[in-house]
Amino acid sequence: MTGRGRTIRRILDVAVIVVLVALLLTVGRGSSGDGRQLVGALPSPDLHPAFTTTSSSSTTTTVPEIEALIPLSVEAIAEDVAESVAFVLSQQGTGSGVVISENLLVTNAHVAWPDRTVSLVFRNGATFQGRVLALDPFVDLAVVDISRLTRKPPSIRIGTTDGLEVGDELYVVGYPAPDEFTPEPTIDTGEILGFTDWEFTGVGWLTIGAPAIGGQSGGAVVDQYGRVVGISTFGSATSLTSVSIDDVLTEVDRMLAATDLRGLEPRLIPHRGARRANEVAVAGEWDQQILFGWFSADAEVAVDWVGATGDLAATTIDGATIVTSSDELRFLPLFAFPVVVTAEAAEAAAGTLESSLPLIAYDDPDHGKTLERRGMTPGVFEVGGDRDFFYLDLDTGESVAITVESAARTSLGVFNPDGELITEDFDFSGFIGNNAAVEFTAAATGRYTVAIESALSTVSGYMIVTR
After folding, report:
1. For residue 104, what is the enclosing H or E element?
2. What CATH number is given for 367-466 in this structure?
């Protein structure tokens, strides 16, 4: 071969190598090139002054090796993904969480609520108290700061729901019913049953045929390559629903940048202002007063509503009954922290709630707001069995339709200006598309009361739509 021929051959060889490298990198990037912002750094200090990092730019995920796109065995998926999934312990109970970047972990809102810090245990043996940065009960997501964790677990590899179809097999990795001393992750398998979009939130869910087991909430739903495609949320004994990872990443960015919660002020359960005597008044059967107490397990508590006739109850924050009474409550908190005390009555009542140990009254922002005649009003069920009410001013003969959009099982009732129930509906199934809804015509001019109650055992957002 001539010298010129050898030169041309070398140029062609180099060109082929460059093309091959470019193709490999393109394949290796997987779903990172779809325009989504992948969170890899904490927000800048002007958004969250308590953060120690000053980085404000997002960091894209590391380009995976080509072998990562080869389907893995169930054992390999479990071993690989478990390194990025944490056991989460809060006052609400136990759950799971997924490391999506060097500094951030995501879990469910109902796992983290009402804590401002949660305990984390990782497969590599690291334990940590992570600070809850943001929480959105409408899409059941919470973001936890792990920037100060010294023994960093690997970030989970990010996948996408694009290209997934009904019948595809997925895997759920989390900590269902773990041993509290030695939590171990498990893996469940199920086929995709369907996809659902909730227009109000702009978030999509996918449902798979795997059981939703307590403690699995906030875990990773992954594809056959071990890439996360969803964060498990809730479900039943036969199916589990998860938020699409494509929307999780978008929501995390939005939650960290937001100053409010979908138009609502931040919701925090107070930890100060506890009193042994609290003035309590309820407007009617649709109203309730909630108080919180933090007690040691062996402290007997006595509560009496002096000057009023009504019902008292002590429950856990997820609505599990400790004791009820129409007279005086006496109970041991056991391991329920915090304890929720509620006062209710069949009609308007007021008095003093006297307790042997201090309680903190919660001024629920979703009590007594006025609904727009045609519009959307957001609210939050803060505890299991929460009861909220709103006012709607109508003229005689005016017709109205009311729908409550929520992932919670919800009851809806409307009371006329005289306090009489005129219509009601129930959504016992929960989730999207099965909403409680009523239609009625005002028989008299005045202020009508729209009352809703959650039958879900956890925090959940809702939207009241009037038209």
Report:
1. strand 104-107
2. 2.60.120.380
Q: 367-466: same fold as 275-362? A: yes
- Sequential pLDDT tens for the chain (467 residues): 444 444 434 433 434 333 333 333 333 333 333 333 333 334 333 333 222 222 333 333 444 444 447 899 999 999 999 999 999 998 878 899 999 999 999 999 999 998 899 999 999 989 999 999 999 999 999 999 999 999 999 999 999 999 999 999 999 999 986 555 578 899 999 999 999 988 888 899 999 998 877 788 999 999 999 999 999 998 777 889 999 999 999 999 999 998 777 778 777 888 889 999 999 999 999 999 999 998 887 889 999 999 999 999 999 888 889 999 998 999 998 776 789 999 999 999 999 999 999 999 999 999 999 999 999 999 999 999 999 999 999 999 999 999 999 888 899 999 999 999 999 999 977 666 679 999 999 999 999 999 999 987 788 999 999 99
Strand partners, 192: 208
Instruction: Give exposure, 35-51, as e/b (b: 16+ Cβ within 10 Å).
Output: ebebbbbbbbeeebeeb
Q: Which CATH architecture has domain 37-50+69-257?
A: Beta Barrel (2.40)
Q: Are 453 and 385 in contact (CB under 8 A)?
A: yes
Of 258, 256, 259, the residue nearest 43 (C-alpha) = 256
- At the topology level, CATH places domain 275-362 in Jelly Rolls (2.60.120)
- Domain locations in the chain as residue ranges: 37-50+69-257, 275-362, 367-466
